[in-house]
Amino acid sequence: MAPDPLTLPAIHASHIGIWIADTHGRVQRVGRGEAIAAVAATPHLFLNATLTGDRLGYPELSGLDLLELFAFLYPARFAVPTPAGIAAAVALTPPESEEDIAAFLPRAAAAMLSTLDDPDWPEREGAWHGAEALSRQRWSWAPLVQPRLPRPDASERWLFARLPEWEETPPRGAPRQVTIDEADVVARLDRLTGDGAERRPGQQDYARATAAIFAPRERKDAPQMLVAEAGTGIGKTLGYLAPAKQWIDQSAGSVCISTFTKALQRQLSRETERLYPDAATHREKVVVRKGRENYLCLLNLEDALQGGFSGRAAILAQLVARWAAYTRDGDMVGGDLPGWLPALFRRNGTTALTDRRGECIYAGCPHFRKCFIERSARAATQADIVIANHALTMVQAARPRDGGAPATRLIFDEGHHLWDAADSMFAAALTGQEAVEIRRWVLGPEGKSRGRRRGLAARLADVASYDEAGDRAIQAAIAAAAELPGDGWLGRLSENEPWGAVERLLVAVRAMVYARGIDSRTADTGYGLETELADPDPELVTAAASASDAIEALLRPLMTLGKRLEALTEDPPDWLDGQARARVDGARHSLGTRIDTLGGWLSLLGRVGGPADHDFVDWLAVDRYDGREFDCGLHRHWLDPARPIAEVVYRPAQGVLVTSATLRGGGHGSGGWADADIRTGARHMDGGVRHFAVPSPFDYARQSEVLIVTDIARGDLPALAGAYSRLIEAAGGGALGLFSAIRRLRIVHSRIADRLARAALPLYAQHVDPLDTGTLVDIFRADPHASLLGTDALRDGVDVPGDSLRLVVMEGVPWPRPTILHAARRAAQGGSAYDDMVIRARIGQAFGRLIRRADDFGQFVMLSPSFPSRLLGAFPEGTPIRRLPLDEAVNHVAAANVARRRGTKSTAFPAFSPS
Q1: Distance in angstroms (rounded) separating the CA atoms of residues 772 and 77
Q2: What are the angstrom distances between the C-alpha of 395 and each of 289, 431, 649, 717?
Q3: pLDDT, tens digit, 9 for 90 and up, residues 238-274
Q4: Which of 301, 326, 782, 907 has the smallest count of CB within 10 Å of its CB?
């Protein structure tokens, strides 16, 4: 029996109206002014403060947010942050219409609060002390929660006492050299897919092909390498997990599976449960790894709980502490922390709870033995399967740390993203923001700055007291770091009053960019300015020489310090116990990272006034957002970023699989593999690279349709908005709209959101709604009437099978941005052929969102009056393609929607005729 609703007023605001339920449950529709006056005078119940505040036009909304209560009661549990999602989480009937939501909220609140009376509530431990702490922060729910929470008989353990400690383990041995049998692989695949499952020949062929990477390597720097394209629906995950598990069992080795998106990491973690059905065994054998900036830092959390945060941020810290006691792995970004929780607090305090600046003090931290990051790193050394991301895999290959034998077999899923991941990983940027971070890392707090930030001297105080040469190196580094930009550097640049050699360099960079740069707004790619690093003016050459001297003055003592720390570990003194050694090892790793960065800066500065290096593209840029400068400096990227992948990542491995559904970008035959080898770096390997392709089993001729709309002129924003609105209405929602520019996305959303809401078709959008991308996708997936607008992040890695996604609309051909970097690569890779490769890949990934299951049906609409025929290869063979005006496209989409509702989906579409 459901508890009685709370006798509190509630408010619900949407694009079509605002409703308030009084304390007796009577609902009234009100105007915006009346609603704001009501919530300002009396605390109301609502769902999602930031979203409700945006809809009201009242960002300072305060009251009782059901999502905050959910986060307190059910830490590390998932719920879609909508009325229907909350109803499902607490076993209530969801409201049927917008008008019913305000009256539903008090019922949902009462149902949630009844959890406090449940003797079997699994998250009871820590709740009483958490509520007490939240009460001291004047949490709005505290008066309703505290009376229902009896004080525990025994004193509750503090959070940091409840967390388990990790233990040191011996290094994992090298794998045995074995050859796995293809018949065993297929048999294992049959067991993984389950008895009675349909046998998929394509999946079996794929599993046999991928087994080749587990054969022993024949010569040094020549791994067994396969580049494999597996069409959507093949089941490539199990296709490579079957041979991987067979090899693990026979060799006692480990496999690293690298992905690009967090969504695929979660999916892989679920899929590997088939390999290890027992939950405890799965936790031991499969470890998900991410960069340390994704994990909760316990020392930062402790500081926040003890006064480092105030106001609303302090409430967030307490809710995160509740989560920390129940989380599986401490992952705050894409893990089991609700993605919507940080967004409830306008100033996202979670960034201050992670180690985003590489300031970890390792064994100097009182929570080192309970650290989520260290636990994950150590678990990974013992795991059979490590699921990492491309960036972390490259970092570990470029800067390996001690920790046992690395994985000798690498599987790169989402391999089409390797190029982009390497482009970021192996780049160099001498900018104001980057230099400020180095300065802070060396000097620590300056002036009135607060927080636990510690400089190099504080982190290595024991080393300085023991080693005179090390202390001199630390002091020299501190003196040299003063030449780097400090707080207020942007203002000094604009006023032409720089402090130090590097700020003088940035002044010269800024002046040259403004003198020569092309405002990228003319290309509709943002608000930045950039110019080639060619024929620099004398001021820049002189400033670069001085900056180079200053950076070298910092680099020399850091290198000396690195050698002193290395000597300490080789000939340890008596005081260098386990904790001190771990602290020194951590400092060595941090030093190595900064030394690499400074070395890259020196190389880049050597280019100013010197000869060009044809392996790199160098340029100057002033970065702006909405016309406001936020960074300035010099940039260097590899002309072909796949080259360092081959050298640093592939060659040391024994076996490598690079796989994706769209590796060839829609190309077929040898030309398609040439594109794939460019994007993956396989062309830089000395022979022996195998290729394999298996097409999707989906019947695209029956399940899909491509409509190229010919009468929406590029740049006509009213017509673009009207097209999106009409197409979404015709489909009855279920649409994913993709944009290449945030500005156009926002304009279209502002024009159509209210109209669609009146048709009971909710519309959500990246860069508009105050929700993270993962939460937006969760909401979209849960409501078949909802639609979602987004940019590149939604073009890839979004898995929404079924009716929730039945229409993909692209605003036009996703032409590459005309940057200096793109122009250089275009010239090096064959001109327009390079553009076509990039565009086909983007379109192919966007189309790939549409059909995810054998019973899916969907339409892909391209709003482009002059879509080039040469790009049609981006779509799977057999896909019906039609060029037609908007009216006819809307009729096609409406007819498909009618057929869907009747359960009689169309069986075929007329093929495209070039005429």
Answers
A1: 17
A2: 12, 21, 9, 43
A3: 999 999 999 999 999 999 999 988 888 888 999 999 9
A4: 907
Do residues 818 and 526 touch, judged by C-beta distance below 8 A?
A: no
Give the tens place of pLDDT for each residue, 482-499: 999 998 999 999 899 999
φ and ψ at 430, to 5 degrees?
-95, 90
d(CA 608, CA 619): 10
How far apart CA 152 and CA 11 sit, in angstroms, is 35
Give the CA count within 13 Å in the CB-facing half-sphere of 257.
31
Secondary structure (H, E, C), 665-702: CCCCHHHHHHHHHHHHCHHHCCCCEEEEEECCCCCHHH
d(CA 731, CA 893): 6
Confidence check: pLDDT of 681 > 80: yes
pLDDT in tens, 291-307: 888 899 999 899 889 88
Rounded CA-CA distance 430/407 in Å is: 33
Q: Which amino acid is at 111?
A: A
Q: Per DSSP, what are the bridge partners of residue 632?
A: 622
CA–chain centroid gap for 20, Å, is 37
Collect all residues with Cβ–Cβ distance below 8 Å to 206 and sequence separation of at least 6. Answer: 228, 230, 234, 236, 239, 240, 692, 694
- Under DSSP, the state recorded for 351 is G
Q: How many CB atoms lie within 10 A of CB 680?
A: 29
Buried b (16+ CB within 10 A) or exposed e, 769-780: bbbbbbbbbbbb
Instruction: Tell me the average pLDDT across 868-890.
Output: 92
Lowest mean pLDDT among 15-19, 189-193, 572-576, 601-605: 572-576
Please, are residues 493 and 631 in contact by the beta-carbon 8 Å criterion?
no
Q: In whole angstroms, how far apart are CA 255 and each of 276, 383, 390, 393? A: 15, 9, 14, 12
Q: Measure Cα distances from 513 to 431, 634, 812, 910 in Å.
A: 13, 10, 31, 53
> Does 87 score more than 70 pLDDT?
yes
The one-letter amino acid code at 742 reads: I
Burial class (CB in 10 A: 0-12, 13-18, 19+), 785: middle
Give the pLDDT of residue 407: 80
Q: Which residues are bridge partners to 764 per DSSP? A: 788
Phi-psi region of 139 (alpha: psi -120 to 50; beta: other; left: phi over 0): beta
Query: Six-digit token pair at 59?
Result: 């960002």
Mean pLDDT of the chain: 87
Which regions of 602-754 does DSSP assign to beta strands (E)? 616-625, 628-638, 655-660, 689-694, 704-709, 735-738
Is the pTM value of this prediction over 0.85?
yes
Q: What average pLDDT does range 625-650 have in this prediction?
A: 92
